[in-house]
Design goal:
There is one protein chain. The chain is mainly α and 275 residues long. It has one domain. Helix content is 60%, strand content 3%. Strands 1-2 form a two-stranded antiparallel ribbon. Strand 1 and strand 2 form a beta hairpin. Helix 1 packs across helix 12, helix 9 crosses helix 10 and helix 9 packs across helix 13. The chain is globular and about 50 Å long.
Length: 275
């Protein structure tokens, strides 16, 4: 007789997809966010992505300065693991999802999630003392929440002054002079740096889901803390078809996919800090 997966197993799978968010952030644009800054990273997926052609064209111009890679063997192992998990195991599911769900629907869900987590971009713009970006993010949020039916439609992007942004805490640390540090590849999360790994914690605190479903939000055994993982995992999976497309455009023509992803990620992050 077939049995269903234990609840704990399902939660682990959802958490794994959640952890992929930073990967999507590096592959295309930060997960589900439209941004003029190109991004590429390990397969997966903070968010609407830069097209593969754009990513190739941007990264072909200049190579980033070297970054320390003291954990090379660790990084190579987890790069291979992430590749097999996302590009291998998850690819059929992503293709099936893209076939069943129209791109317009996927785009709307992505827009709604990015509109919901606008505090991450807004707070980091303030921390970078960029009040123009902060006001733009607030304006985008108000317009898309009202005229865009809760953010399902990105109405604000029709205004040249309200194009999508992509500020995060890693960029904020870079703004205040914190360098990349060393390169690191995390299981499920994908490529990162010492600075950006710390930045993930700051972004988590600014995410409304952290406050809505935190352990303090509901007392007792019925606290649905896992719902934040469900929401984030759903957003990651929703963008996985585009993420894999961008990932393939970088790794398939590369002689050394590991180095190609590392260079692309570091250049993207340095460009993000400088803008």
């Amino acid at each position: 007789m077939p049995t269903s997966l234990p609840r704990n197993t399902l939660l682990v799978l959802l958490a794994a997809l959640l952890l992929a968010a930073p990967i999507c952030q590096a592959a295309g644009t930060p997960i589900n966010q439209e941004s003029p800054k190109p991004a590429v990273a390990a397969p997966a997926a903070s968010t609407a992505a830069t097209t593969p052609a754009q990513a190739d064209e941007d990264y072909a111009e200049t190579a980033p300065a070297p970054i320390a890679d003291p954990f090379y063997h660790w990084n190579k192992f987890w790069f291979g693991f992430n590749h097999l998990f996302y590009s291998g195991l998850m690819r059929p599911f992503a293709k099936g999802y893209a076939f069943i769900v129209p791109s317009m629907v996927r785009k709307g869900l992505s827009n709604a999630y990015q509109n919901f987590i606008f505090p991450i971009r807004f707070v980091n713009a303030l921390l970078q003392l960029n009040f123009t970006k902060a006001s733009k993010e607030f304006g985008r949020f108000m317009i898309n929440t009202t005229l865009g039916v809760g953010g399902l439609m990105d109405v604000a992007k029709s205004d040249p002054n309200l194009q999508p942004g992509n500020e995060d805490f890693g960029q904020t640390l870079g703004f205040w002079g914190i360098g990349d540090g060393f390169y690191i590849v995390w299981p499920f999360l994908g490529p990162s740096s010492a600075r950006d790994s710390v930045g993930l914690a700051g972004d988590a605190v600014a995410n409304p889901l952290f406050w809505i479903f935190g352990p303090w939000s509901i007392q007792g055994e019925d606290n649905p803390w896992y719902l934040s993982y469900v929401v984030k995992a759903g957003d990651v999976f929703n963008n996985l078809p585009e993420t894999l497309e961008t990932y393939d455009s970088v790794t398939k023509p590369a002689v050394d996919p590991y180095s190609a992803i590392k260079d692309a990620y570091i250049q993207f992050r340095r460009n993000a800090v400088s803008q």
